[in-house]
Design a protein that fits this description.
Blueprint (H helix, E strand, L loop, with lengths): L1 E5 L10 E2 L9 E11 L4 E5 L1 E6 L5 E6 L4 E5 L4 E4 L7 E6 L5 E6 L3 E6 L4 E7 L7 E4 L6 H8 L16 E5 L3 E6 L5 E6 L12 E7 L2 E7 L4 E5 L5 E6 H11 L3 E3 L11 H17 L6 E6 L5 E6 L3 E6 L5 E7 L4 E6 L16 E6 L4 E6 L10 E5 L13 E6 L5 E6 L4 E5 H25 L19 H20 L2 H11 L7 H9 L5 H9 L9 H4 L5 H17 L9 H11 L4 H14 L13 H14 L1 H9 L4 H4 L1 H5 L9 H17 L4 H12 L1 H6 L5 H11 L7 H14 L17 E3 L22 E3 L3 H11 L6 H8 L6 E6 L4 H149 L10 H4 L1 H24 L8 H20 L4 H10 L2 H36 L1
Parallel strand pairs: 1-3, 21-25
Antiparallel strand pairs: 2-8, 3-4, 3-32, 5-6, 6-7, 7-8, 9-10, 10-11, 11-12, 13-14, 14-15, 15-16, 17-18, 18-19, 19-20, 22-23, 23-24, 24-25, 26-27, 27-28, 28-29, 30-31, 31-32, 33-35, 34-35
Length: about 1100
Amino acid sequence: MEMEVNAGKLGKRTGKASFKFNSSNDGVLLRLHHTVKNETEGTVVRIRFTAAGFTANNERLVAADHRDNVFVFDLVGQRFWTVAEQLKRITIIEGLVGGNLVALGSKDGMVFIVDLDEKNCVRKLNAHPGRVVYLASSSPNHATAKLRSKATGISSPADAFERYDRTYLLAASQDCAKLYSREDFAELACLRYGLAADNSFCPNAWHWFGAPTGPALITHSTEGVIRVYRPNFKLVKELNVTRLIELYRKNTPAQTITFERQRSESATDEPDSVELTVKRLTEAMVSSGRRITTAQPTKDGQYYVALCGHSTLAFLALDSWLVCRVVTLSNLFIAQFAFLPAGESAGSGRRARCCTLTVRTTGNDLMLLNFGNDAGLDNNPSVLRPLASGSSGGGVVHNCYKFALAPNGRMLANVLGSGEVLLHNLDSYRRIDAAALAMGHHRKAARNIERPGSGTSSCTGSLGRRQRSPRKAKLEQQINALQVQLSKTLPKHRLLPILREYGEYPAKHRATIWRTLLELPGDRASYAALLNRGSHPCVAAYEQRFAGLDRRTVRNLKRTVSCLAHWCPAFGLIDYLPSFVLPFVRQQPTDALALFETVATVLMNQCQHWFEYAPLEPFNYLAMVENVLADCEPRLMAFYRRNGVAPRTYAVPLMESAFVRCCSGGTDGDNQWLTLWDHVLSNEPCFGVFLVAAYSSLHRGTLLKATADGGSTTVERIFFHQSSAFGDVRRLVGRAHDLMERCTAAAHPRHYFKPFTPLNMPSALPTVNDRWKPPSCDSAASNAVDCFSPAGESEELSAHSTASPTPSGEAANASEKGSSHRTYASFGNFPHKLTEVRRTETDTLRAEQRRLEGKIIELEKLEHGLRERLANDLVRQEHEQRVKAVERNLEEAIAREEQRVEMQRKLLLLHRKQLRERENELSLDLANAKLINDATVRERELDALLNKFARERQREETDLLFAEEDIKLKELELLGRYRTEPDAARVPRPLDQRYQVALEQLAVQKLKLYDEIDRTYSSLGMPAGVNEYAYRTVSELRKVASVAAYGSERPRDKMEERSRERPPGLIGSDSSSQVYADTLRRMEEQVKVLQRLKHDVQRK
């Protein structure tokens, strides 16, 4: 179901809107697209989504478009809404706590903390000046290891802000990374790198993982350097993963996986092949393992997986920091990947080990990839499933632009290049894969039921530990009965006419016919006993030896050769045995039991004389070939003897490869090999001798023509480096039958071969224990066939099979009753003592090799440690040199600074001196100005005083005039009274007595005036003798004033006598007028003196 988000109605819409999930089973839950109607033009505009992400509790999907709108989709309540505030240029979304807080990074370097319940931004962090490339939030699970260490009392060094219960938010750009606390979003640490920080290490991605000391950060560079930081950006570990990958690939080849990719109907073969070729060439140009495209830890925190180039995944164990697995995807080119959390395996509590991840290819295709577990078992095959990319009108397919995985791995948000967002349900894809896998197992089981004896193909070491159900036991009984019936119905004498008529057996029934011809016992117990002994040491290096083969073939080859080596010790010392077994492994990839029994039966019969002188060449067998050639092809044999061509040259290459060299390559070659072995198994055991001779006989013309070139060299080129010249193997078989018929009885190898012996033998024959013991007889001819009875394994197997008291136990015992008395025969036609000696030497050499490998590993670790120490020493020396250079530069800078300070000190003293001089000048000017100011003030005061004196004088003059008039009136009155009164009563009173009080007051005022004049002179700083005239005048004025003051104290009698002597009227009148006139004159003179003094002061 499609859901349309119409942003044009966001202004009118309030609250939340609902939506519904897609009801189809295509794996897409929601298809989100944002459209807006253009009212003016009447068109519909598609708004592109630029980022998507999930909350920490997996319940909400957050998507942002390029118009700064942020949409929130509640996947539980099936409702959606928008954030009230528009957040500009969002490029990345990271869930924080629960389902309400998310962090959004923008191209402008801002980090917005949004509360989805409140629909607004609660915090804005100005993290970087450029684009926010990575947002990584730590979870409480990352601190589990540190919690355990604190619980056990083990403390680890940490900074103050590194609490084990604290969670962090990392915001990184292209040249800087900052760490914030999720509690208050305060900045805790900052790390700068790149060219701006003079640091060549440029991390590409940041991820949190749980370290033993708490949460830690891990990152990588494109050059393959991995660094681990603590939350305070302290470097904890640094290693070169490309070097580790090279060391790993020296000892272990990479696991190669090829996927069968489904191609669309519209695509043609040619463009796809051209594109794949171009990508492979481009991948080859970049040295494999030297460029890290991207990397991230797995969800369980056990591995750090690095993508080398675009098609190689390297698994680095975070506990040991060693590469433990390298996977190469031959036809898949990855640009980005994300691991899904490992789920619980069905029916058990163990974690599933399969690696499931979502990948975005270089063609922007989104796929779900499962490439099995690290052991590569068959129950976890590699699966590649493309996720639905969606199509718009017209069938246009839009590829993935970016994707975001939910924390629980059950959903995935796919942002398409068209701007849409697809919400994928990954559980549905995994359910489909599980159903397909179960169906494949069911079909495989059905095929095994139809094929006789195929029920033993899944026999493993744990077969005897599981109780078989009654249905399975009944099925095994039916298969055994069918096998017996087939052996009776299809005897060898009835199969040979079919083979002669058609030249081969039907491919559909070939497995059944081979089982009938070889009389395979299908003994699961004995085979399980061999499997329980584990891998033989001789198969340890098969991964390197057969690196070009797929893992399944190599695994089957190792299993078969290991069982053969446990069955017969000599087979573990034969170098060409894997080459002999490999064609059988390719033809029987699913039935492990039938494969082992087929090879073992062939070795016991057709190859019974191959190992008589092991590890030397089979001289008796080669002599038989020479006898046949000498009897039937004398000319060719003469050529061989004349040119010194030994039988090993033309016989051993065919024998070692199980006659694969007799067939052409490709699918046709496999069919020819099967046809050839149809004849080998249907004829006598000596038929192989005639095949070798027939191959030389068919090349007789070519060999005889090459005499001039050198016989031995030409023969080696033909038998070792040249494929078969004929395309039909029937010619070879026909020539072999012809040689077998033409061979005389004396030279026929039939006399040296024992008749066909099946692999199982009655238990009454002699048996050997699990640990092989060489018999006392040294004759190879008398030890052709011995009985092998793995007693220990059989008893253990039967004990496990009967341990459970279920009804199926009786059926199981009944089904095995017919085969319990038969065991695998033991192959003994080899030199036992020499084999035992060689096996002892081989074990010794292997132990020595293991010891040397251990020493090599220790030396490599020591070398790595020495290199680290050397690098640290170099870094320390460089640091010391830099420190010395800095100290030297610092000392020079200090010396220059001291010189500068000394110069500044001198300049400061000079400035101080100049300032003191200027200060003195200013002080003098200030004192002069103050004096002038004081003189001005005093002048103003003096002017005011003079004005006051003038006013006083005017008032006194006025008072004197009034007093004079009053005196005149009194005198007139007295004169009239004097005239009227008698003479006796006329006693005249002098004027000085009558005006004594007024004169005294005037004298006091004059004294005050004189004192004021003295103070004025003193304030002006003029000495007493500056103006002698003025001083003299003032002295005279004082004297006059004193005389006037003290003149009134004369005795009254003298004044009375003087008044008697004078006439009363004339004397009084003249004397008083004279006194007043003198007083006025003196006052005028004093005023003039004061005015002259004022003028003198002004001139100064």
